[in-house]
Structures are given as C-alpha cells and as structure tokens.
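Query form — protein Acetophenone carboxylase gamma subunit

QUESTION: What is the three-dimensional structure of this chain?
INPUT:
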Amino acid sequence: MNHRKSTTDVWADIGGTFTDCLVNVRQHDGTWQQRTLKVLSSGLVAAELIAAETGRLTVAIPPAFVCEGFWKSAGVFSPDHVKLGTIESCELIQPADQQGRALVRIKLLQTFPSSLTPGVSLTLDGAIEAPVLATRLILGLPLTEPLPPLHVRLGTTRGTNALLTRGGAKTALLITKGFADLLAIGTQNRPELFALDIIKPKPLPETILEVPGRLAADGSELQPIDVGRVRDALTSLAKSPDRPEVIAICLMHAYQNDAHERQVETIVREAGFDRVVRSSQIAALPRIVPRAETTTLDAYLQPVLEDYVQRVEQQFGGESNCTLRWMTSGGNLVTSAAFRGRESVLSGPAGGVVALEQIARAIGVQGAVGLDMGGTSTDVSRYDGRIGRRQESEIAGIRVLSPMMDIHTVASGGGSICGVRDGRLFVGPESAGANPGPACYGRGGPLTITDLNVVLGRLPIDKFPFRLDLEASREALKNVHQQLPQDIATSPEELAEGFLKIAVTEMAEAARVVTTAAGNDVRKMTLVGFGGAAGGHLCRVAEALEMDHAVDHPQAGILSAVGIGNAPIGRILDRPCLHLLANRLQPNDAPEIELESARTIPGDVANKLATAGGDLLAECIERLKNEEQLSSDDTNEDRLETRVSVDVRYVGTQSPIELTLAPIESLADRMDQQHAATFGYARPTMSIETVTLRAEATVRSEARTFTLESVPDTSHRALQTEDSSLAPSPSYDRCSLREGETIDGPAIITSPHSILVVESGWTATVDARQWIQLRRHQTSTRDATNTPADNLESDNDAVEMEIIARRVQGIAEAMGEVIRRTSVSVNVKERRDYSCAVFLGDGSLVANAPHVPVHLGAMGHTVRSMIEAFPDMQPGDCFISNDPFAGGSHLPDITVVTPVFCGSAARSPGWPCDFFVASRCHHAEIGGMVPGSMAPMATCLADEGVVLRNLPLVYQGKSHHAAIEHRLSTARYPSRNVPENMADIAAAEAAGREGARAIEAMADSLSLPRLTSLLRRLLDVAGEATASWIESLGDQPKHFRDQLDDGTPVEVTLTPDPIQRRLRIDFTGTGPVHPHGFNATRSIVTAAVLYVLRCVTPNELPLCDGVLRRIDLVIPPGLLDPLGSSEVSRDRTPEECPAVVAGNVETSNRVVDVLLGTLGVAAASQGTMNNLLIGDQSFGYYETIGGGAGATASHGGADAVHTHMTNTRITDPEVLESRLPIRLRRFGVRQNSGGAGTHRGGDGMIRELEFLRSLTVSMITSRRRTSPYGIAGGDNGQPGKQFLIQDGIETELDSSFSIQVQSGDRLRIETPGGGGFGPPLS
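ANSWER: The structure tokens for Acetophenone carboxylase gamma subunit are given below.
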C-alpha cells in the first residue's frame, strides 16, 4: 500500500444535502484526536449581511466556518446568485455575537451593488468540494494555503444524484439486433399497480444501435458480427451532433462467450470513442435485461464520477499529497481508478452498514439491525455474522448487478408528512423536504414526524442546529386534528402520539422484511441507531420488534462517515460458474421425504470448482495488490482476509443462496441445510447447480485510539417544554456522562449530532467506549400490541387500526416474498404470478398484498367454500383448491389455504378458526388438452386440466400430498410437470406457515378479541371511504357496452345512490354462457370491480372486503356467472361445468374496460393478456405479453407494458433461451399502434420466437377483431395480430388457436395499442 507519510486522516460521508466530515490528527503519543464538522454538500456557506461599506462587507457566519484569513480568494454571491466579487482579505472582528455568530469583515476586489441591505443572505463560495472545505475549516487552513499530506476516505451520493436527476453522461447502447427496445420494455410490469397514468422509468441511453450477429444460449456462434454495418453505424454516430460521451455494449449470451463484445469494442474504439463499457467486463452474469441496465448505468455515471473524483483529488493536493479511497456500495474501499458508476449508488449508506458490523462484533452479538433515519426516509440493514449483501438491486428504476449492502428503505423520515385522509391517519410517503421543511422550521411547512417530537417534548428545541418554532408545530397539529372524523375522540397530543406509533410501525415492518427474508429472528437481535433522527425512535422501534437490546453510538449522527473511515480496502470479483453440483435424491415410500444418503458431488465437478475458485481468488488478490501497491506487510495473514463463495440453487429456480465454497464436498448438503434453515424445508428431490463464483480480498484497517474533541455541558437539567402540558423528561448532555453511569427512562440524552430518547421501561448504561447500551426491563404500555384483552374499544382505535393494518399487510407481503424465493417454476418465481392474503375466521378479506390484480378480493370466495367443506379444522391443517366454481378463477390458479389458531376456545358461528392466510399461484402446467393448460377449444372444465376441488394437503395431522400428486398424475388430462406443481405448492405451504406464525405472534402480544375488533374496524373504514367516493358520482345512471372478439356483449350499468351512499353495478345485458373458455366466475368479476374502485377513488382504499360493502353487484347467469349458483356447481362434474380458462385472463379485462368506459376516466388499454403457451409432453411454458396502455385526461398511455388485471413479468430472453427449445428473434415496441389523441395511447409490442424442435403452441387473446376504444374524441388503438412464419411464408392466425410447429418455424405476435384520449392535435 502507498505509505506516504501522513499524520492526518479525513473521513467523509457526502450526502445529498449535508456532508459529515471527520478529521483525525495523530498526536505525539501515538493517539489520534478526532474533530467533526457538518457542511452543505454544495460546498457553499451562508452569511448574513450586517453592514455594507464601499468595497467592504461585514457578515455573520457560524463560528465553525471562520478562521483568520480563511475566505481569501472565495467568491461572494447575492441572494439571486449574482457574483458580487472575489474576497481580497477577510478579518475576524468578533468571535461570537449575541446569537452565537462570528462577525467577519471582508474586502472585495470588485465593487458591488449599493442596493444590498443588512439582513440579506449572501453565499460564500470557495470553489471547492464539501469534504475539502470541511477539512480546511477543521484544520484552520485558509483556501490559499496548501494542505498537509492526507489519507482520505470518502463515500458519495454523486452517482446516485446523477441517476435520480438523470444528470449522467450522454450514452449510447449497442445491443443485439432485434432488441433495441429491450430497456424500454424491461420486465413489462408497471411500477404502480393502481395508477391509470403509468409512468415507466426512462432508459438511460439516448441512442441505441442494433448489432447484427448472434450467439446461442451455450455461447456458440450462430451468426458472425456484421463488421461493415457496425463500423458504418458507429462512423455516422461519431460525426453526428448527438455524439455520445460513452458507449455501452451488451450482447445476448455474452456472459457465456465475450468474443462478440470484444470484437465490437475494437470497432468502437477504431471509430474514435475512448470511453467504452462492455457487459462481459463488468457484469458477466446471465439475464440480459439487468446486465444491460447495469452496463448502461456504469457507462452513464462514469464520466460524472471521473470528473468529480479528479476534482476532489486535485483539491486535496493531488496524487502526490493525497491517498484517496472511495467507498463502494458493497462496503469496501477502492482507488479512484477502480471506483465505478455501478458501485457508487449506495456509497454513503454502505458506510453505516460497515459501522453496524463493527459495533455488533465489538459488543459480541451475532445479529444486529441498523436503523438509519434521515430527513425523508429510513434505511434498515442487517448483520447476522456477516453484513447482509444483495447481488442484485433496483435503484431509481434501474436493475443493478453488483454487490450492494442489503438496505431496505421506507418513507418514514423526520420530514415525512402526517395527515388524515378518508378518516385514516397516514404518515408519508410525501416529505416536507428541506424547504419548506417541517412546520417547526417556521417556513409554513406541514405537520411532520419532527413536529410530533417537538410537540411531545422529545426533541429539545434549544439543542437543534437552529431554533425551532414550537408554536408552529402545535398549530400544524391542531389543523390536522380538526380534520379527524367525529367518531375519533382524541386530544391533539394523543393524535401526535398516534402518528408517532404509526411511523414507528413503518420502520419496524421494514426491519421485519430485511430480517425474515434472510431467515433471522429479529427478536433475538440488537438494534443500532444511526443518522440524526434514529436515536429519538430507537427504543420504540425495538419495542415494536420485541427486541430487548439497543445500542447508541456516541457518533450515531455521523456513523456512516465513521464506517467509511474504518472500512476495509478490498475487491470483489465474480464469474459465471454453471455446473450441475449434485443430482436429486430419490424419495422412499414414506409419506414425508427422507434423505437416504448424503448428496455426492462428482469428483470432476469438485475439481473444477476448486480450480476456478483458487484462480478467481488469486486474480482478486493480484488485482488488489496492483491497484493498491500493497507490500508484503499489507498482505500477511494478520491483515489480509479472503473469502471464496458460490451461489447455488435448485435446478429450475432462479434465486440462489450464497455459501462459502469450502469444504466443497459438503456444499450440496449445506445448500439443503441452509434452505431448510431459511424457509423451513429442503428439497432433496431436486438437483442442485452452481451459478456464480465470487472472491473477496480485503485489508483490514489498523486499530486506533481516538480522543473526541468536545465541549461538555456538565449540567444535568430538566428539559423545559414551555407551555406543554406534557411532563418534562430529564435531559442529559452526553459529554458529561461517565463509564458505568445508568439512566432510567424516560430521559433525553443530547449530543452534538443526535438526540437519544430513553423510553420508560428502558435503562441506559454508559460502557467503557462511551457507547450507551439500552436494555428493556419491563413491558411498555405504549405498544398497541399490549392492550388489555377486555378493552375492545378505545380512543386510540384509529391509531391502533393503522398499526395493525400495516402489520397484517406486511404479513401478506412477507408471504409473497417466501413464495418468490422458494418457488421453482419460471411462471411463479420469475413472472411473479401469485398473490397472498389474510382473512378473518369467516373468510372476510382484511389484507391483500397487491401482486396480481385479477386475484384481488377473489380468494375470499375460495376460503368461504373451504369453510363449508371442512367445518372442523385444527392447527396444522392446510387445504388446496383450484376449482373455479368453488371460489377459484381458472384451473392453473391453485389456492393454498392455511387456518390460523390463536388459542381461542370460543368463536363466532361459522368461524372454524381465528384467521386464514392464503396464496394463489398460477401454475403454467396443470394438465388439459394442450401444454400450458389453457386450451383455446376447450368446451368443459375437464378439458382444461386437473380439478382440485377443496382438498386437504394436511388434515388432522395426516399428510395428503401423495394423494394430490396421484390426482395430478392420473387425471383424464394429467399434468405434464407434477414435480414442478408439487414444488410450487410446497412454496405456497411455506408461505402459509410463515403467515400463520406471524399472526399467532401478533395475537400473542395483543389480545385476540382486540386484534379482531381492530380488523373489523378496518372493514368499516374501507366501507366509509367507498361511500364518500360514491357521493361524488351524482345520481344519474351510467352505461357502457363492449364485446369480445366473437361479438359476445359485455355490458354494465352503474346506478349511484348518493343518499344511501350505495352503488349498484349491474351487468344485465351481458351475453350468455360462452361455448369455449371465455366464461368468467363471480370471483373474477369481484376482483375486476375491486381493482377499478381502487384505481378511480382519489385516495388509497384498503384492499379488503369492506370496500365492497357499499356495492350492490348484479351478475345475471351467463358469461359472467355460467352456473348461476354454488349449489348447482357442487352437483356438477368437471365434464358438466363450462370452460373458464380465458375468463380469468381475457374476459376480466373486458369487465375492466366497460367499468372504466362507464366512468369515462381512461381510454381502453390493450384489453388482453396475449396468453402464449408452448410445450410438449415433457414441459409446459406460459407467458403473457404486454401492450399499449390507454391514455387519460392528464397523460398519454405507456408503451409496451402490462395493464389492468395482470402485472406479471416476462421471462428474461437469456433465461428463456437457456431453459427452453426457443430462440427469441425480436422483442420490441410496435410503433404507432396506439390511438391518436390529445393524449396518445401507448404502443403495443412485437415478439418473434423461433422454435428449435417440434412443439405444441397455443394462444388465447382478445382485441384482434375489436379495437381498444378511444375516449372523448380519441382514436382507437390498433388491434393485435399474430403470424406463423414457415419457410419465409407468413400466415395470419386466429385470435385463439392451437397448432403444431416444427424446428425453424417462427411465431410473430403483435399486441394491441391503447386508445387515445381527446381529439387528436393537428
């Protein structure tokens, strides 16, 4: 390592608004003295004008920003950013005035306007970056003097800010021919499920060029690069006025073979482009969509970072004077040359996670949760023996394949706005920002979390960096209090306390997400706070998580900078490593799978892994040595740490588990064990494969002893809360506390950068490091989960309902995460075609995680049908059904229902248990006439696949899995992939166990009657919100009619009754039972109605059955209710039941179209899911394809996106080709297919597939003979089309078909565009 002589270290966290800087100076005795300063990240300093004379100004500046002669050569700017002149000299004339400000007289080289008046705010600009400014101020070195030799470690949000503001470099992307629109399409899902105005993230490249040439999935060459065409295109681009600064290259399957990318890079450089980034160089991993986004991100940010890094280094004295290192998102420090754009986006927050690890190790805990609370949001991170990392993240809508700290962000920061909406209390996600800021800033801002703490006496207003306005906070709280419904009787202070509880719940749920996803029990972990606002909420968040231990670091407010300073220097390298590690074990005849023997790893595979791991580690160490100029002392065993890991997964799944490579012989068994530890079960009957090798080499920082420079306030005094009626809490200055001192809550401990609130029931103890250890010694009475059992009503119902609603919603979301991580099929895991929900014991929906809209509100029908079938349930039971006429949607959607028992002996009639949790997953194969289980010509339910009508999976202690497997295997049309069915069913079971465990835990900490009462209140509140919206509809009926492609009408009449506050939705006039599968069921219609209500109401409705209480739904027998009653359906065999497979995916969208058309709020979107099914007797593959979104009065329709009743992702092209006998030839936007209008409809997609062997191909679509309607004078969107291409001859196909294709045949699908809104502009 470069050992340039230095006695000064600089550590800084450069945030979006502020920069925290620590300067460490070595003393003569070998210890280090540490000083800190917070400055604006702009590097600017505000100065108030006191007096103006000819050529001279007297200004007031905070004392920390003043030293003799410091500002000489700086610029002075007026309030309207006009430069007044350059400072020739500056003189300190008064160290501190009555307001604690230093008075400085400055002389300018130029004259300035005489119109300046005292009191205006001027700006001093030294033309240096924030960390350089802070360093000079701390060291007392004026701008004109040289800095001493420095070791500098920085974390920066410069890359993140450039990404968020789209302020990166002009970038061009070179991508395989046929995929120019790949980044615009992404994964085709929309970011906001219920937004009619769909706003998709804009791709980063301004120019995209297609590269002729193609590799196969195994990396072999199918078509060489057309060098001439590529060279001509780049030559033209180099001469164009839109010449990019940097070129990104990402070609299909380059992770398998980088030859084509390297060839294209050579051509790019020959065309005169110096900055080139290729995907095989920075992210050689499968899946082209995230790899292309990572590559373009790196290219987009690289010039911005290079310029910034060079500027900072020069201002610190240049390479000869400054050893500069930068924090990466993965938690290691790198040189300036190695600091890449993709590694910079979590540079600052990563420092906090490094500090979390160091704190956890120092206090000897195996698990810790970091709570980093700032002004707009709170970041939650974890440590469980190692800091939590993710290998893929999404930042500002861009997927990034790079090691990053596992940080979960929620919109609960100090500036989060608190208010009342439709009778419900909300906290965030909107923030007051820095301007106007919270109400207490005195600038007319709204009520925020900061204001709550001010009003409640939790934030000492005299300890804030500037004076806070208590009265402004009280007035804002009073205004919100007046908006409460009359049935909520609570005082303003109680309301403030309630908002605080809601905010704490949001933060606690984020911690639950981070820890449960990793298989950690958060109750056994330690909570560590950092960021300026975390200490004020630390104890409360710990209580909400049932944690008993928390730690407050003396530098909690600047802990990210501390972590950056103590982070290791290191490198992480990864390489694709695709090997079959171990074959599946064969199950014995026992009902439950038992391992007959440990898995064995073939010797050649073990040798390959060992060799590849050793080579990768050697390369990693060598790169570290070369970049850091390491000596043998730096790489000895005392300081160098290495780790080689491998990502492993079950074959067919996509999400891997990272394990250490050694010992290789136990790798497969360790995979089973880790999977079981994380998810509750292993899958020994599935083979295991390796995916990625990863090597990390780090050099630990030297241990140091620091002396913090501080000015203690030795007075222990009570905080004065002025006129507050709240009892004051004792307040202590942290600097005055000594080792061993204990403080019982309630108390407030202040320090220069943060506030710590010790709650009642907690004890704070100062340890030898001056860290404060917080321990809970009694149960708090604040927590909503500790209300006495007999107190079923209270003044805090509104608050407690929000807390419980958020927790139950979090349970449903956590269940979905379990399914995503543990499922096997591409359709469930990759496309995320599943939903999860929580119900009361009578089947009433109380929380539905918004995964797939067509499942919304629909599972309750299945739960109620299950109650009828199994009135006697017991703990451990689990049930399964896919019967559309027993509450289901269509046969591929399999619902797993788990009853939840919370120890209650007495229940209401019809309640076989206390709660239910359920999940519904779309299985791409469930039998039927054609592979994929969606037969276009099916005439009855039996033609569509295996029917599982209200069957037990586990019942009265006995497993029925073998019976389910037998039924799937032996039906008239059996499933073609029973193992995959059973694996995805197991994932749903695991989700049910997780959901049941979480609800049981919540009922244990609350009382069951109280929990039930609050959830019933949620249903009431949802009903009232719906009623308020109905009042806005007037009293005139509204009618709309549309049709299916064969002319079958779909008709609806809405009749609002504003007096009774009810809405009649009547589908009379809709057509009869359909001869094929376009029939829908009542549950599908219910889901469509709930989705539309959620989209059109002005505020967020809870996704629960209460929304439908004000709706009178009239569905006549026919297309939308083919059997008419449940009694009839129970007596029918599958052969006697109408086919329904398309009702769920196609007719549901037409129901949405007529409802939106009736309300006149949006033009029709594509109106189909474009269902594509491919397979043979060995497999079935299913995908749905997006199209154009309908325009609205305020926005054009989005291109190439899933709309309305689905939001599933489309399989990545490289995953598709690597797993299936298919080659994707084209995937793009269907230009000009959206309807014209004042706001244009979105364009559809074009998807062209080549088949590599004989297969059965089926499609079920709509909007081929009808067009998505325009509205308010807008034009219709173009209908869809599909063509079979054989030997160069195109044949147009029907809207629904099933055909046999041969190797070399192609299918081109052109999906519909959306309708336009308003007359087209001339």
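ADDITIONAL NOTE: The chain has a mean pLDDT of 88.
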